[in-house]
Amino acid sequence: MSTMTEQTARPSTAWRMGVLAVPLFAAVAAVCFVAHVSLANDHSAQQAASCTWLSLSWTVYATAYGAVLLAVAAVAVHFGMFRRAKRNQQNATAVWQGWLSLLAVAVATLCVLAGGIAVVLTHMEAADLAGKIGTHLCEG
Hints:
Elements: H1 13-18, H2 21-50, H3 58-87, H4 96-129
């Protein structure tokens, strides 16, 4: 039976390089979420400026789904790599790449939640707009 104190081997170079995908995925997921918020705000500003209901562009959907998918990929890679290290009786947190992955998976978890909310709200807005596209938004 293996205990945590027996897991003293450092992960291989290949493991350390592979686990660096986690912060990359988490960072791109966060960028996608920020881009989604910006595009959604631009859409509202365009509607107000034209006084017409406008449909959502495909980029609003792409950034919302991209944030969720990349964040889920970051979490999956993190847990897969840490499970592999444990199976090989290696201490994943013995190297800085393991600690960076732990920090990134925390960010990715927040992106999963925020991105999921963004996807739901985007579809709710699209459903609300479906019957109004092209009609006047402003009164008077």
